[in-house]
Amino acid sequence: MAGGGSPAPLRSLPRSFVDGATPDGPIELPQEELDKLRKVLRLQSGAEIAVLPGDGSLIRCRLEGRTAVPVSCERPPTEPSHRLTLAQALPKPDKLDAVVRMGTEIGVSEFVVFPSERSLAKWDGSKLEDRLRRLRTIAREAAEQCFRTLVPKVRWLPSLDAVLEALPQAVVLSEVEGVGRHLGQTEPPSAIVIGPEGGWSPREVQRISDRAATLGPRVLRVDTAAAVAAALVLLRPESEAG
What we know:
Elements: E1 15-17, E2 27-28, H1 31-40, E3 48-52, E4 58-64, E5 67-74, E6 85-89, H2 93-106, E7 110-114, H3 128-145, E8 153-156, H4 160-166, E9 171-173, E10 191-194, H5 202-207, E11 212-213, H6 222-234
Parallel strand pairs: 1-3, 6-7, 6-10, 7-8, 9-10, 9-11
Antiparallel strand pairs: 2-5, 3-4, 4-5
């Protein structure tokens, strides 16, 4: 260790995701990560950092030139034991950013974005990959900030029907009165689907009727509903890693 002292607490270490990194030898740092460590955080050679390969492990390293030299490898218990996919019908862009950021902080494993019949936002096909890339960057930055060792995946599906086919066990949040079960009183689902600002269309309400759940009698904003739903599932004691 630099300076021969005790190793720094894990949560105090600057963190960088480097896909596929291993503890077997010096890790070449991508230029973006190197600039963050050297120019933004102003770290000098010898500083301790944490390299995250994206497989749930953490490699404690010493910064040397353009590389990170592995010192030890461990697997901190920061990921929930329960994996949750959050499928969000397209809301306004700032709302979607918040959904991904807060969902990542809470522990969501995957985000699915899709257009619903009442989505106010429309994604042009030519810009689809750019928009998904932006969301993946938000997820990556949020994962670094909240000390996660995995970056949630972000993918696109073309419709609610495609989402329900891909996620057959999903619970769908509904604002329709008379929905019998509260999400907090169900078995933790593997996936939750959330509608857009305009709510579900009559056809979509019929489509989700056999898997609908509610967050209660109050109407929540899209980003609030996503965070509350994820927290109800992932912050239960039995869902936390232990």
